[in-house]
Amino acid sequence: MSIIITHEAIKEALSYPAYVELAGHLIGNRQTTGIDHSDDSVSKSAQNLLIIQDLLETITIQEQVIKILQVYQVPLTWLAITESWCIDSANSLPVIYKISQVNANIQLKVILRDSSSIIDNFTTRGSRSIPKVICLDAESLVVLGVWGPRPAELEAKIMVKVKHLNNAPNNDEIKRREKIRSIIKSWYNENQAQSIQQEVLESLIP
Predict the structure, then answer these.
(1) In 10 A of CB 43, how many CB atoms?
(2) 76-82 and 106-112 as β-strands: parallel, antiparallel, unpaired?
(3) How far is it, in rounded angstroms, from Cα 6 to Cα 123?
(4) How far apart are the C-alpha atoms of 149 and 154, rounded to whole Å?
(5) Tens digit of each residue's pLDDT, the chain (206 residues)
(6) How far is it, in rounded angstroms, from Cα 115 to Cα 36?
(7) 97: how many CB neighbours lie within 10 A of its CB?
């Protein structure tokens, strides 16, 4: 893939802890990242912050992942595109951050989707779905891999559910979104960050 991300963009991107701090500050002021500051988005961001804090304290990285990462010597930048209201980001980025901490050659940086056009180069079936994590050679910024917006098993499950809901009579958009969010929450709770750790090795370690 051609270079579409600049060193300036990487320099201006946030560290993951700085992103979490920003999200918490905004929530404290009844705001959220992105362009939608509705009560619903603020509420989702607040719920997500609790998920993030819990995962950062409790997540255990698999021994297999640690062994592979410890010997990796190529400097990489993982650029995550997100917003604080995104439930998939809340459940995946803390895990990816913890994985990045295993090896000093890997740095995770964060940009906000609605503050950048970078996501337009990494759409999912034409949608600006998040999170997306882009693996870059730290020096050349050549794109080496992409992960997101969610683990493959969950994505397949959501696609089936969306098709079912789209064909249902009297389809209420709010109820539809809540049903999908409920499925996402349940899946992450059951999976306990196992799938995403394997997918990171496949997609973000060239």
Answers:
(1) 14
(2) parallel
(3) 19
(4) 10
(5) 455 899 999 999 999 999 999 999 999 999 999 999 999 999 999 999 999 999 999 999 999 999 999 999 999 999 999 999 999 999 999 999 999 999 999 999 999 999 999 999 999 999 999 999 999 999 999 999 999 999 999 999 998 887 777 666 666 777 778 888 899 999 999 999 999 999 999 999 99
(6) 12
(7) 22
Answer yes or no: are the C-beta atoms of 49 and 24 closer than 8 Å.
yes
Q: Give the phi and the psi of residue 76 in degrees, each rounded to 5.
A: -125, 150
* Cα–Cα distance measured from residue 183 to residue 161, given in angstroms and rounded to the nearest whole number: 9
pTM comes to: 0.93
DSSP element (H, E) containing 20? helix 16-28
Closest CA to 200 of 69, 14, 53: 69
The amino acid at residue 173 is E
Q: How many CB atoms lie within 10 A of CB 137?
A: 15
CA distance 178 to 59: 26
- Residue in the structure block whose two tokens are 């988005």: 41
Tokens standing for residue 134: 């882009």
Residue ranges in 78-172 assigned as alpha helix (H): 87-100, 152-166
> Position of tokens 């997500």?
48
